[in-house]
Every structure is written in structure tokens, then in C-alpha cells.
Amino acid sequence: MGAIADKDYGKKDVIYEDFTLTPSGLQYKDMKPGAADGAVVKKGANQTVVIDWDGYTIGYYGRPFEARNKSKGGAFTGEEKDFVRFKPGDPSVIAAFNEAIVGMTVGSIRRIVVPPNTPTRALGYPDGKAWRSMKPQPSSFSGERALGFVLENQGMIDKTLLFDIELIKIIE
Questions:
Q1: What enzyme class is recorded for this protein (predicted)?
Q2: Contact by Cβ (8 Å): 13, 25
Q3: What letter would DSSP give residue 105?
């Protein structure tokens, strides 16, 4: 499939009118405001953020690969999900999360649309099996399979992802 690698075949990123588009190509929308007097994530500050998240393969049938506040029963049952902890700018976390978390206040929920990676833009998980080395990771086998199917697929599958990020806590 080398002949079709890095080709977009005319498919353009979908720009959602009610989302804010950043220079990097990330789109975000604040779904729930945090506390007005709550702590704010600052770029370059020595903070550790604690988040909960869910993710969907919106470019491929909108399949969920991670769910916040998991439902009882179904494919997302299993071990209790741990919250994700990281320092903004952590290279082991996908760039979209590092960018999106800045400016959030505790208790807020931000929805982000992560376009497919290109040679000049890498906001999401790396393609192929390398995605397994990046945070955040799905907490269930079915979530790993759904995300892996999209990211490891060498065909012309749309790899656009949607995430909801909830900021639980900031540790100074």
C-alpha cells in the first residue's frame, strides 16, 4: 500500500462552525464550563492534570473506543478505569491533548476534533502500531480493537478522532 501512503485524494478536513479552529488544525468546543474561581491549566506551568476522557472514531462510523463513566454491561465493562495524569507538554501524550488542556478550568469538559496526521501535522496518535506507546490508551480490549483498526489500517480510511476531555483536578 506504499503507493497510497500520505495521499488525501482530495478529502479535506471538516471544519465545524461552532468549534474553535487553532493554527495547528485542532478544533475544540467547551461543552461544560468549569468553576469560575477554579484553577486553570497554564502553558509551561509545573502542573499535573488529572483528566477523564472518551473517544470516538468519527471518521469511521463514529465508533466509541473509550467511555467516561462507563456503563454497566456491554463491551466497556471490566476493570475500573483510572484517570489519566500528565504534565502539559508531556511527549508521551498525543499533541492534541497537550494543546487542548491549556486554558481549561477544573470541572470543565472540552470536546476536540483531531484531524488525521499529515507530514506537516501530527496531533493524534502515530499511525501503525506505534499508537500503542502514546497516552491516553483505551481501557478495554474492545476499545483497543476499535482504535487499532482505524490507526493500523493502511487503506484510505478517515482517521479523524473526537475526544471529550473532562478536567478533574490540577496538582500544582
A1: isomerase
A2: yes
A3: B
Total domains present in the chain? 1
What confidence score (pLDDT) does residue 160 get? 92
Amino acid at 103: G
DSSP E strand boundaries for 11-108: 20-21, 27-32, 48-57, 63-66, 84-86
The C-alpha atoms of residue 66 and residue 69 are separated, in whole angstroms, by: 10
Residue 145's CATH number: 3.10.50.40
What's the pTM value of the predicted model, to 2 decimals?
Answer: 0.86
Q: What are phi and psi of 139, to 5 degrees?
A: -95, 0
Of the candidates 132, 154, 157, 164, the one whose C-alpha atom is nearest the C-alpha of residue 60 is 157
Beta bridge partners of 53: 165
User: What's the mean pLDDT when you consider all of the chain?
Assistant: 86
- On whether the CB atoms of residues 65 and 55 are closer than 8 A, the answer is yes
Cβ(149)–Cβ(142) below 8 Å: no
Question: Going by C-beta distance under 8 Å and a sequence separation of 6 or more, which residues neighbour residue 169?
Answer: 49, 50, 106
Q: Which domain holds residue 17?
A: 2-171
Eight-state DSSP code of residue 50: E
